[in-house]
Amino acid sequence: MSVAHHHTHSRHDEVVAARVKAMEAILVEKGIIGTDAIDFMSSVYENEVGPQLGATIVARAWVDAAFRARLLADATAACAEMGVGGMQGEEMIVLENTDAVHNLVVCTLCSCYPWPVLGLPPNWYKYPAYRARAVRDPRGVMAEFGLRLPDSTEIRIWDSSAELRYWVLPRRPEGTDGLTEEQLALLVTRDSLIGVGEALRPGAADTEAEA
Ligand code: FE
Fold first, then answer.
1. Counting beta carbons within 10 angstroms of the beta carbon of residue 185, is it exposed (0 to 12), middle (13 to 18) or buried (19 or more)?
2. Which has the closest alpha carbon to 16: 171, 123, 113?
3. At CA 121, angle to CA 36 and CA 70, rounded to 5?
4. 41 vs 50, which has greater pLDDT?
């Protein structure tokens, strides 16, 4: 089954949504959490915290070698330097893509994801199809996202957990020497931070939509 184009309103979604609604109702009824708090959290992670924060960090790493080294040594601390961190990102590890090695992130157990730098995970990240196939057939999965790498590139799969969340430092695209940090950040897609895509080439940012 296609991972990238999995139908978004599957039976599984409906079951999960019903369960979440029921849990929310109980928490509100018992006075453990207010509906306004739930609305606030949803709004923050849908509108304010998202892959644009991860993109900002990647752009900094591309232009600042010392920051890049700190990011690869201790991602959580380096992100904190830029004011990025928090829930579901307490322990993060950044994996550097090179011409020789390409990293791909999955949570085989559920949907662990570094919220502070990527926001909420896309639906496909949570589906069993992605979680199983990313491990078994990573090149097939990446091809569905339009990413085809040379056979010589080593693919490494990283299984995120509640304790440790991985994300990817994509390769800096060619032809970006003259770009500012802000312009570079626009080339960094959500998919490139998960490893199912690469950073966009200059000029492609306006025309290529994310999966
Ligand atoms: Fe998980």
1. buried
2. 123
3. 105
4. 50
**CATH class entry, domain 52-210:** alpha beta
Residues 6 or more apart whose Cβ sits within 8 Å of residue 138: 104, 155, 157
Residues within 5 A (CB) of ion ligand 1: 107, 109-112
The CA 160 to ligand 1 mean position distance, Å, reads 6
pLDDT tens, position by position, 23-33? 888 888 888 88
Which pair of structure tokens corresponds to residue 191? 């998919």
DSSP one-letter code for 188: -
Percent of the chain with pLDDT over 70: 92
Q: 169 CA distance to ligand 1 centroid (A)? A: 20
Ligand 1 centroid vs 142 CA: distance in angstroms?
20
117 C-alpha to ligand 1 centroid (Å):
16
The catalytic residue positions are: 107, 110-112
Q: What is the pLDDT of residues 178-188, one digit of tens each?
A: 999 999 999 99
Q: What are phi and psi of 154, to 5 degrees?
A: -80, 130
In the chain, what are the domain boundaries?
Answer: 1-48, 52-210
**What does the pLDDT read at residue 35?**
79
* pTM, entire model: 0.82
Long-range contact list for 130-139, CB < 8 A, 24+ apart?
A: 130/3, 130/6, 130/106, 131/106, 131/107, 132/108, 133/3, 134/3, 134/104, 134/106, 134/108, 135/106, 135/108, 135/159, 138/104
